Amino acid sequence: MASGIKDKVAILGMGCAKFGERWDKDADQLMVEAFEEAVTDAGIETSQIDAAWLGVGFDAMNIGPSGIPLSMALRLPNCGVTKVENYCASGTESFRGAVYAVASGAADIALALGVEKLKDTGYGGLPVRSRGTTFDMIGITGSAPGNFAQLASAYRKVHGVEAADLKRAMAHVSVKSHANGSKNPKAHLQKAVDMDTVLNAPMIAEPLGLFDCCGVSDGAACAIVTTPEIARSLGKHDLVTVKALQIATSNGWELQQGGGWNGSFFHTTRVAAQKAYKEAGVTDPRSQISLSEVHDCFSITELVTMEDLYLSKEGEAWKDVLDGFFDADGQIPCQIDGGLKCFGHPIGASGLRMIYENYLQLLGRAGARQRQTPPSLALSHNLGGMPSQNVSAIAIVGLADA
Amino acid sequence: MSTDTGILSFGAYIPRKRLQRAAIHATNKWFAGGLGGLAKGEKAIANWDEDTITMAVEAARDALEGVDRATVGTVTLASTTHPFADRSNAGVVKEALTLADATAVGDHNGSMRAGTSALIQALAAAKGGAAPTLAIASELRLSKPASEAEMVQGDAAAALLVGQGEVVARFLGSHSTSIDFVDHFRATGEDFDYTWESRWIRDEGYTALTVAAVKEGLAKLGVAPGDVARFIMPITLKGVADGIAKKAGIKPEAVADTLGATVGDSGVAHPLLLLVAALETAAEGDRIVVTGFGQGVDVLVFEATGKALSPRRGVAGSLARRAADENYARWLFHRGNLALDRGMRAEIDEKQPGTTLYRNRKAVLGLVGGRCTKTGTVQFPKSDISVNPNDHAAHTQEDYPLAEKRARIVTYTADSLTYSPAPPSYYGLIDFEGGGRMMAEITDCDASEVEVGRELTMMFRIKAFDERRDFIKYFWKAVPVR
């Protein structure tokens, strides 16, 4: 068993562009916006960056191929720039590249940046795209809400939950995230909503209504990482280090093994969570994790993810949600920044945005939405694909001495 | 073993939706008030994801109920609405039926009696000892809004397995005339018919030509008109069949229901559809006369043997599998007669590489998956390495057809965001009886029928249209078992 990544890499600086309908900026300008905050925070010069990873989800509709757009936008010092795409987990995937580069000793300082410019596509929601010529003959090219809504149908059946109860719990997820987003000046959606608004919204994909779905946004987020030693030598005192970084990828079992997966959970998230907790030395996540930022592309996704991360018992997340366990003032706040739901979801940037929020919270720099109980260990969960076929990425970051 | 030549098996398919003619007239009467007399009853309309080929496949599957598919030697598909002018339409049907590659296929077209003419040829081949022919007729009618044709026509398919053996109906013989009587025509590549005056067609065409042919045919075969138990004249206009029977000396009670009130005139498919309906209720010894009309007349005479077939949908089951539909606008849209704003999600390029379709033709057109010969794990599609998490056995899979297996819903949604010509789009994960799983579209369903655990059957459907290149992508979808 590999010894893991724990405390081998520190976050030197982070930045995040304002998410939303950025009619005013191109992708390269959003990259600069996130980068300038990160590089100032890090206190380094661009020339000190040894390697960079760029995460983008919808490449053909966005910035085009290769790492060149990042290198050009930031005027990087002709270092290696790798572009990565792993569905909506592309942001955490870019972070993994940078962290591994530092951990291996191949780079002293590495950069991860995720960006997406969805509002130039003309779509509400994510654009339609091919999943390969073979898949396109036999697979379903449904919408993202249609793919995730299916969790609810199976969850109700498997756990014997009434449709109305689950719908209310899902609504609570969204009401909570809107309340949190209203305190976040960088969030795409900053308006609180009430339960009735959520419950009575138009149906998008049964049982997901409009407010069960996150927005799609323009945005960018950036991390600069190094070793704890270098960070200290650069004058950093309160260090946030990477405690665990795990990605699990479906191999077809969920989609193709008859009678196997029951459709009500994320197999990959459970695999990634078990590995991540082991790597971070977490034995009881419900008591040890201070905060979580999860991939709440849809309310039902967040709800079942609470179980897959072992923060709720199987079949009971819907009760924890309704009890306020994951509210900003609850036991383990989830999406204290508004989440994908309200901060927004510029695909390639989202995983880094989650880490950005956890980083700010750990350092007590989250402003009006700062968690009152000082957090020490924060988890982010970044999922790409759909329940039956996906990439689940988990990053746990914490104070260096935690 | 009997060496009779005739019909070994039969099947039918009528699309589930029945458009109410009153709903058509309610929209069009301001313009075409004269059609009020036809605004009664209902017509069968194909769903957006059905066409001549998909309906043919369903009729053929019905006819092959209880039949060893390896016995089929030839598949023919008669229609004037073949989706492809140059790609064997019957060949697509053959792939969907997972018949052996050593199967002959043929498309028949060119007139409303293409179905009966193809049937005569198949019977002649059978008489000569040829392996059975699956003779299918299928038609997806296309008519101009506010036309008489729109009121009269309907969509359907019928299939007859023709050969030697224990037949349900013995073929006594046929008679054909060919006369260039142009009651209507449609030039190659055009969508709609041009039709002459109906009174002339009725008197000089349907009646005069058919009466003459029936008289000649029966005389030739030595069958007395008075001995005919069932007379099939596939013209749904009121009184036409009755008038012809009277003039030909056939008993009034022998005249078969033309299904005008329930299905509509299904063109090339219609004589075969009515023949299937007749066979479903025929008694031993019944003489059945089938006519086909189109630039001349085909007359075929059968004698029922009383042999019973295994249960099947047939015409009776198809008529029962029915959902009344009053949404005329939706049907116009589905037939391309109403240009709705479909939005950006409909813009995706559906280009189909010929190479991938060819390599995967069994999976795509036949719904053939794989079964691991080592562990028995069934999966779709087949792959080099098994999906079984306990044994990822490599290169162990054999073909495993799934199309005839029942399935159940594991997860589902009704998606209003994704583009569908019939929103919301129902789809979900389904498990096949005996193994295998796939994400499948659920079609021909009502909201109340889609629930976790619901039993499903598979149907061959249109998955998508490549509108830029005029290609049709077919695949299998799930339909609730009722």
Task: Describe the protein in words.
The complex is a heterodimer of chains A (402) and B (482). With 402 residues, chain A is α/β, with parallel strands linked by helices. Chain A has helices at residues 27-42, 68-74, 90-104, 135-138, 144-159, 163-181, 195-199, 228-233, 253-256, 267-280, 285-288, 299-308, 317-322, 339-342, 347-362, and strands at 10-16, 51-55, 80-84, 109-117, 203-205, 208-209, 218-226, 240-249, 291-293, 377-386, 389-399. In chain A, strands 3-2-4-7-1-8-11-10-9 form a 9-stranded mixed beta sheet, sandwiched between helices. In chain A, helix 1 crosses helix 2, helix 3 (90-104) packs across helix 15 and helix 6 crosses helix 12 (299-308). The model of chain A has no long low-confidence stretch (mean pLDDT 96). Chain B is an alpha+beta fold and 482 residues long. Chain B has 2 domains: 4-184 and 195-334, Peroxisomal Thiolase, Chain A, domain 1 (3-Layer(aba) Sandwich); 403-480, OB fold (Dihydrolipoamide Acetyltransferase, E2P). Helices cover 24% and strands 29% of the residues of chain B. In chain B, the strands form 5 sheets. Chain B has a 9-stranded mixed beta sheet, sandwiched between helices. In chain B, strand 4, helix 3 (89-96) and strand 5 form a beta-alpha-beta unit. Chain B is globular. The mean pLDDT of chain B is 97. At the A-B interface, helix 4, helix 5, strand 5 and helix 9 of A face strand 16, strand 18, strand 19 and strand 20 of B.
What's the structural blueprint in terms of helices and strands?
The complex is a heterodimer of chains A (402) and B (482).
Chain A: E1 10-16, H1 27-42, E2 51-55, H2 68-74, E3 80-84, H3 90-104, E4 109-117, H4 135-138, H5 144-159, H6 163-181, H7 195-199, E5 203-205, E6 208-209, E7 218-226, H8 228-233, E8 240-249, H9 253-256, H10 267-280, H11 285-288, E9 291-293, H12 299-308, H13 317-322, H14 339-342, H15 347-362, E10 377-386, E11 389-399
Parallel strand pairs in A: 2-3, 2-4, 9-10
Antiparallel strand pairs in A: 1-7, 1-8, 4-7, 5-6, 8-11, 10-11
Helix pairs in contact in A: 1-2, 3-15, 6-12
Chain B: E1 5-13, E2 17-20, H1 21-28, E3 42-45, H2 52-63, E4 74-78, H3 89-96, E5 104-108, H4 114-127, E6 133-139, H5 148-152, E7 156-164, E8 169-178, E9 184-185, E10 194-195, H6 198-221, E11 228-232, H7 240-248, H8 270-281, E12 287-293, E13 296-304, H9 314-320, E14 323-325, H10 328-334, H11 354-359, H12 361-366, E15 368-372, E16 378-379, E17 397-401, E18 407-415, E19 425-432, E20 437-442, E21 455-466, E22 471-480
Parallel strand pairs in B: 2-14, 4-5, 4-6, 11-12
Antiparallel strand pairs in B: 1-7, 1-8, 2-3, 6-7, 8-13, 9-10, 12-13, 15-16, 15-17, 18-19, 18-21, 19-20, 21-22
